[in-house]
Structure prediction request, 146 residues.
Amino acid sequence: MAKEMNNRQAYFNYHIEDTYVAGIVLLGTEVKSIREGKLSFNDAFCMFEKGELWVRGLYIAEYKLGTSNNHIAVYDRKLLLTKRELKRLAIKLKDKGYTIIPLRVFINDKNLVKIEIGIGRGKKLHDKRDTIKQRDTEREIKRYLA
Prediction:
């Protein structure tokens, strides 16, 4: 049973400046599918629509034991944040180059599915190369120390 799924590409493609933990509106079969770890962040992003924050492109596989009431794998899901957090995100999003990205989906202590979102700015190609170089040097150092 998977408890946490991370969006590793988000940290590679974006400079994450601030993170928020939000609730997410899901159906029962979606929760069961998330508990099995059937989730993908490919091309997922968050957007504002009528003052509410939605996550678009988050893939949650259909539950294999689901009946005719099974959910659709990819559709917009509403995120639950406070008005203050929504206002803060909307102001930051108006700056050029910022976007809101889902970073991880996890199940908290109360068995509720939560999503961690981050507001970040896209990296340039040379920044991505620096990230790869830094990762390689850290790996080399760990090899020598072990």
Q: What stands out?
A: The CA atoms of residues 111 and 140 lie 39 Å apart. Residues 125-145 form the longest helix (21 residues). Strands lie at 4-6, 14-24, 39-40, 45-49, 52-56, 59-60, 77-80, 98-107, 113-122.
